[in-house]
Amino acid sequence: MGYGTEMDSCGRCMKYSLFFVNFVIFIGGLVIAGLATWALLDKVSWIGELVGNDLLTGAIYVLLAGGIVVAIVSFFGCIGASREVKCMLLTYFIIVFLLFVTMLIGGVLAYVFREKLVNTLEREMSSSMRTYDSHKVVREAWDTTQSTLHCCGVNGWRDWGNLGLNVPQSCCREIQPGQRFNCNAGADTVNPSNAYLVGCINGTQIYMQKHATIMGGAGIAVACLMFFGMVFSCILFKMIE
C-alpha cells in the first residue's frame, strides 16, 4: 500500500482517524493560543511581581508558543495523512512528540504553580509590599491588583500602616474610570465608605488559581490529543509501503 494505491478499509480508517485527530488538535492549538493571549491581556504577568514567582507567566508563554506551533503542525499533519506521504508522517511524528513534551511541561508547570501558590502567597505578598515605594514595577503590580480585585494590602488596609507606608490611592474606590475618591482620612486611617477594606490575599489566590487551572488543563488536554496523533501517525506510517 503506498501513495496513489487504494487503501484497505483498515488503512482508510487510520487515515481518516489521523486526519480527524489533527483537525481537533488544530482547533485545540488555536484555543490554547487564545487562552494564553487572554491570560496575558488579563494582566496575569503582574501577579508575579507580588508573589515573587514568574512560573505561571512562564507557563503561559510556553503554552502560547506551543499552541501556535501545534496549530501549524497539525495543519500539515492533515495534509500528510490525506496524501499518505511517509516522510511527512515521520517528520510530523518527531515534531508532534517535541510539542507533546512542551505542552505537557507547560500544563504541569501551571499546576505546580497552583499548588505552590498556597504555601508562599502571604509571605511573598507581604515581602513585596516593603518595596512599594522604591520599585516601580512592584508599585504598578500592587496598584493593578488592588484596583482590579477591589482590595487593599495583604490581609487588609492596615498592612500598609504596619509597614510605615501610606495607604496607596489604588485602595480608594473609583468614582469613574481614572478618577478615585480621596479615602485617606489620616496617617493611619481611611474613610471606610470610600476605600477597599478587605485584603488581597484571597482574591489573588482565587484569581491566579483560576488562570493556572484553565491553562494547565488546556495544555494537558491538547497534549493527550497529540498522543493519539502520534499513535495514528505511527500506524499509518507502517501501513504505507
TrEMBL record:
Sorted UniProt keywords: Disulfide bond, Membrane, Transmembrane, Transmembrane helix
Record-stated family: Belongs to the tetraspanin (TM4SF) family.
Cell compartments where the protein resides: Membrane
Name of the coding gene: LOC117236900
Classification of source organism: Eukaryota, Metazoa, Ecdysozoa, Arthropoda, Hexapoda
Stated name of the protein: Tetraspanin
UniProt source species: Bombus vosnesenskii
Ranges annotated as spanning the membrane: 16-40, 60-82, 89-113, 214-237
Predominant localisation class: membrane
One annotated Gene Ontology cellular component of this protein: plasma membrane
Entry keyword Disulfide bond: yes
InterPro entries documented for this protein: Tetraspanin/Peripherin, Tetraspanin_animals, Tetraspanin_EC2_sf
A Pfam family: Tetraspanin
Mode of membrane association: Multi-pass membrane protein
SS bond partners: C151-C183, C152-C172
Keyword Transmembrane helix attached: yes
